[in-house]
């Protein structure tokens, strides 16, 4: 009976390990870009780079910017293992003033999310 329990324990621990080894994961080089002081007539272009560190393809399901002042571009939605993707956020500062944190949520894989943030301090020109 002890041998059966030991074998079951080994089986389930190896199953859990193999599940973790294939977790779909994008690793971003930066998640925050700070532009410092910018005038209120500026268009900010922030590019975030991520690498697929898993052994499976990672699919980007969507990018959801928090503000209508932000548009985005994704270089590819299907990222092969060890391949990279760039996500570019374009932000218009018109009508904004003061310290801002503008972000977009990237959803990929099964329920994985990453928040990308652009910070700036907008002054009136």
Please give a structural write-up:
- The chain is built from one helix and nine strands; from the N terminus they run αβββββββββ.
- It has 125 residues and is of the alpha+beta class.
- The chain has a single domain (24-123), classed as Sandwich (Immunoglobulin-like).
- Strands 2-9-8-4-6 form a five-stranded mixed beta sheet, with no helix packed on it. Strands 1-3-7-5 form a four-stranded antiparallel beta sheet, with no helix packed on it.
- The chain is elongated and about 50 Å long.
- It starts with a helix and ends with a strand.
- The model is unreliable at 3-21 (pLDDT under 50).
Provide a quick synopsis of the model.
Helices cover 16% and strands 54% of the residues.
What is the string of helix and strand elements? HEEEEEEEEE
| Total strand segments | 9
Percent in helix: 10-25%
Main β-sheet, spatial strand arrangement: 2-9-8-4-6
Provide the residue-averaged pLDDT. Answer: 86
Number of helices: 1
Radius of gyration: 20 Å
User: What about the largest sheet?
Assistant: 5 strands, mixed
The CATH superfamily turns out to be Immunoglobulins
Roughly what fraction of the amino acids lie in strands?
Answer: over 45%
State the main characteristics:
disordered N terminus; four-stranded antiparallel β-sheet; alpha+beta; Immunoglobulin-like
SSE order and pairing:
Layout lengths: L1 H20 L4 E3 L3 E8 L3 E10 L5 E8 L4 E5 L3 E2 L4 E9 L5 E11 L3 E12 L2
Parallel strand pairs: 2-9
Antiparallel strand pairs: 1-3, 3-7, 4-6, 4-8, 5-7, 8-9
């Amino acid at each position: 009976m002890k041998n059966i329990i030991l074998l079951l324990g080994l089986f389930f621990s190896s199953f859990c390990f193999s599940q973790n080894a294939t977790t779909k994961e994008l690793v971003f080089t930066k998640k925050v870009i700070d532009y410092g002081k910018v005038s209120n007539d500026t268009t900010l272009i922030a590019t975030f780079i991520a690498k697929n560190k898993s052994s499976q393809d990672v699919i980007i399901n969507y990018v959801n910017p928090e503000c209508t002042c932000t548009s985005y571009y994704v270089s590819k939605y299907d990222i092969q293992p060890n391949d990279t993707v760039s996500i570019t956020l374009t932000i218009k500062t018109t009508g904004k003033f003061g310290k801002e944190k503008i972000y977009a949520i990237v959803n990929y894989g099964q329920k994985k999310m990453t928040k990308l943030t652009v910070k700036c301090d907008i002054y009136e020109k």
